[in-house]
Amino acid sequence: MALCFDAPMQSWGVDSRFVVRDTATEPTKSGVVGLLAAALGIQRNDDDSIADLARLRLGIRADREGIIERDYHTTQNVPNTEGRGHRTVISNRYYLADALFLVVLEGDAALLRRLHAAVQRPRWPLFFGRKAFVPARPLVTPAGKEKTEAPTAVGLVERSVDEVLRQHPWLEIREDLRRQEVRKLDAGQPTADLRVLTDCKSSHTGAEPRRDHPISFAQGNRRFATRSVVTSHVPLTTELIQSGEPTCS
Asked: In this structure, what are the phi and psi dihedrals at residue 111, rounded to the nearest 5 degrees?
């Protein structure tokens, strides 16, 4: 299943502490699982259902790399550790601006079918890391929408994560950027390489650890395990740059 993560702002925290809230440069597995859990209406303390979602293999393609920006926040009247007195707390919160990702999931077919329906009619609101960071367009092609223009999304097909990441049409909808890459191809110049991250075994050559595999989202008992990912690149080709508005389904 292919999802489109497009928004003016996204935030994918990995190691946020106290007054510094960081963001990864792409969606984390915990962030993706959290979004899917919201779509299905899964409670935070339902560890078994969270585990089912976390078992899905995840692949991410950065169709437009975001720019890391920082928000400067002040919070007034914060009580001290003794509960007495109040102070003003300053915090720095980082986020990705203008980022666009193709998010691909592979695994249990029945679960993927449920998720495909749920992201079109989610039980709870969907957002990208923070409640204010909502999607700029549907995650998948809306049900009943006519697919009259290419490229269309991959949809629910029997393909591996790796195949979908290599073959799915480029999600970029800015015509100036699309024309720019087409001109490069016509002139025989190198085009952009799209950064790709996929789940892999820890023994895989080039595997990198990421501590964002969710075990529990329970309030006061959030727990995560380490997973392994491998980074690669997909060249932007004529086949990926097609006419029409790219969507996911």
From this structure: -65, -40
* E-strand stretches of the chain: 2-10, 20-21, 57-64, 67-79, 86-106, 193-200, 208-216, 223-235
Tokens standing for 162? 């790796």
Domains contained in the chain, CATH given: 2-75+90-235 (3.30.70.2660)
User: Taking the model in full, what pTM does it have?
Assistant: 0.88
- DSSP designation for 156: S
Can you tell me which residue has the tokens 């029997």? Answer: 158
The counts of H helices and E strands in the chain are: 5, 8
DSSP labels, 113-139: HHHHHHTTS-SS---SSSTT---SS-S
State the average pLDDT over residues 97-115: 96
Instruction: With cut-offs at 50, 70 and 90, classify the pLDDT of residue 141.
Output: confident
Question: What is the rounded average pLDDT of the residues 158-185?
Answer: 92
Please state, in angstroms and rounded to a whole number, the distance separating the CA atoms of residues 75 and 226. Answer: 33
